[in-house]
Amino acid sequence: MDILPILSTLRRHKITALLVIIEIALTCAIVCNAVFLVSQRLDRIHMVSGVAEHELLQVELANIGAKADEKARTAEDLAALRQISGVTSVASVNQAPFSNSSSNSGIKLDPNQKQSTLSATTYFGENTAETLGVQLIAGRFFQADEYKELDDVVKAFGAGDTKGVPHTVMITRTLAERLWPGQQVLGKRLYMGSEIPLTVVGVVKDLVRPAIWDDATAQYSMLLPIRVNSGRYLIRTAPQERDRVLKAALEKLKQANPHRVVLQKRTWDEIRDKFFQNDRAMSGLLVGVCVALLVVTALGIVGLASFWVAQRRRMIGVRRALGATRGNILHYFQTENFLLATIGIAVGMVLAYGINLFLMVHYELPRLPAIYFPIGAVLLWSIGQAAVLGPAMRAAAVPPVVATRSV
Amino acid sequence: MFGYYLDLALRSLRRNKVLTTLMILALALGIGASITTLTVLTLLSGDPLPQKSSQLFYPQVDPYPKDRPFSRSGEKVPWLLSYVDAMNLIHAHKAERQAAVALSQVKLTPQVQGEKSFYADGVLTTADFFPMFDTPFQYGAGWTAADDESRAQVAVIAGFVNDKLFGGANSVGRMIRIEDHDFRIIGVLGRWAPQPRFYALHLGGRNYGKGEAVFLPLQGARAADVMPSMMMSYGPSSDMQHLETSQSIWLGLWVQLPGAADVSAYKLFLGNYAQQQVALGRFQQSRVALSDLMSWLRDQQVVPDDVRLQAGLAFGFLLICVVNTVGLLLAKCLRRSREIGVRRALGASRGAIFAQFLVEAGVIGLAGGVLGLLFVLLGLWGIRHQPAPYASLALLDVQMFVFTFVVALVASLIAGLLPAWRACVVAPAPQLKAA
What we know:
By secondary structure, chain A is an alpha+beta fold. Chain A is built from twelve helices and 13 strands. In chain A, helix 2 (14-45) runs antiparallel to helix 9 (277-311), helix 2 crosses helix 11 (326-363) and helix 2 crosses helix 12. Chain B is built from 14 helices and twelve strands. The radius of gyration of chain B is 30 Å and the shape is elongated.
């Protein structure tokens, strides 16, 4: 294909050519970054939780009554919930993954350390690991005799009694790898604050935190053998039984004490949906903007190319009269568009990189992976070609006789 | 003359309907996106109390030990105050008004048989809260400093709670059951929900959205065991049951300082206070901070990152739409070289041609603005149905309504400049010869 005549034509239409280039460059830069942002959000939305996703129900009640009978009431509630047919496991917990409210604790590897190594979330509750359905990859779950009441633990801790506090802990593999990289972790010891030594007895594959500030620490979770009576229940059942079990559970709990306020009653899928709803809305918006951008750019190219073709009807006629085939004319406009798109893409890549640098500084975004550049280029090339096809075909259809008319 | 140009512009636009539609649509999309996001951005970064904000200040001190600082870098001054510090600063009376604030989830039990208890957002604060923040009262008034000291169990309720529980009637003097204690209603607020909810930052509530349901005297509510939503401990004696004496921070403090002299005097007082606490051994550091309301909101980055990102993206989009319009207008005007040649030969000056093409661009801008306004309304409607806490605030105000057309006109005129200039430098003779 002859590129030189195209270049010399473009040189005579510098401004129009430049506008096409600018438009493609801006679109390329924005779309690359927007798609990258969407992929980040999608990664977040699909974050691994480590729990039995479609089998869990959460019920949260307030006002259990006077302090003294909290323990008895919880036991009563749990027994009632277990009776519901289809329920495989029930736990009274202090917090649930992805539910936004969390209790966290600093961890030290050495009690004399001044600053804690990291902060991890602490899951309490009898049977919590089994009910959540976390996958054990080393060691064991807690045994019945390891559990202690939260009130007793707080009292023992206040009195400086180390016997009354738990001695064992289960951690996620991410936490294990972060605390003791590449080592056998079962039997290792960590400290909650400076005071409570805990021995690792089990490692679970994944267990996500209730609230996530930084995606890198999303899996920093520990499970402790402490019973809690906070009115927060997790129920596990078969996926198709969930609606029925939830209804039955509320009924049972209401029977046990009609004066309680139900704060929360939902399936795990709803918890997950709610937790990531902002991310979903934002990715929807970004996708919408990308599509709108590409459409506007494509229409812009169609418009410009049409005018270009109309303006050069005479020239096309002359070329056809001098022996150029329809194919030649078609290719001429296609190549011209390809050239403009290539320059636009090259400029756009530099711009995209610049925007990414800006976002990295201001929004703590990672670097744009190199794979986006070729994909972005192919995308814009195809859009350019698709947009120019119509006008180019119209150009190819110009009959040679136009050359002889003085229109 | 203008009328004639307008007529020419409309004729020219009608001649090529597809292209005109395309230009208007693209411009409208860009304007719709950018004004929608800008509306949200200005709403979220607005001044919650325009008449008062320059007088309101947020003092901070640092009770954290040196080796276990509040933030990992050790640079941030703690966001909240301990009860002891908040009370010391209030009782010093160094500002015209001062109020400590904590948020809480409280259980309200209607006094009507058969009505269920429900949870509502509450504010625990001290007497000056109401006059300092200019809260409007439908009925009654706030409590006094004496009520604070006597731990009076009184309450100010929001208008919407009064509507719900008392059917909007004057409920001053009636009782309301909060966390199983009886509180006497002494005031009912009118509509009051400053955005952002500046006084709620870091207290465990939302930064935007509707106001709280009940306002309780801090000491009186604590006597009824109402717990704050947020507390952070900085030392070993951080017993949740005895928050007043514990080493934990859970209160925000606002002070009103009317003049510059008051501000510098308060700064001095705050610095002296911290040094005095260091001397007493309560603090290890004498760092303090005093920010005015707007800089406090700015420093705490109360506007969500996503919103700023969206605005940036939308203006990028508008830029592309403008470039697109430039290209199309230019192509159009180049095609009309002959028409321009004829007009020039008949005596039209360059200025006249320039004006004619700018009018044409302006018409596109206006049409784009009208259509863009529809897109803005649609966009804001979409945002109101989003899960964000600020969603319900997304409404178009008069300023933004006008601004939409300003942006549309400016964008289209900028887009029209280059084509109009190209049109007016067309030399008439060659165009006439070619014909």
